[in-house]
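Database export, one record per block. Field names are fixed; values are copied verbatim from the stored entry.
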Amino acid sequence: MMSDLQALYHDLIRYETELWNAIDARLRSECDFPLTWLEILRMLEHTGGCRVQDMAREFAITVGGTSKVVDRIQAAGYCGRRPNPGDGRVFEEELDLRIGSVLHHQAQQQCAATLRTLRTAGHARDAKIRTPRSAQGAPDTASR
């Protein structure tokens, strides 16, 4: 049983990595836009602006790593820095444009549809894994 869970875990991690790489490659080829930037830009769009520290906390990554990604996004012209109105010593990132101008609505819808299809396939696989082997036509060794 444990080896089944370990195999499932490893499959999940590989699948997640492959999915990330495939979406990243497509975004880069079609929009010249890495997937790494998407969640940060979505957060900026949702909040209207926030500090690098807030982003790092939200995504459970280091402040230094977040800052490097934000610097790249800023260099590409997608966001800018403004002084924090409550504390002028601190800067907030703000979105200079809307994600829809980079990822058109149709592309966003297509990506969402693909992810729904993949989730459905994953749920079907999970259901198959949870089904006792006897129901799949194999001997049920769990009851021994």
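Remark 1: The mean pLDDT is 77.
Remark 2: Helices lie at 2-31, 35-47, 52-59, 63-75, 105-130.
End of record.
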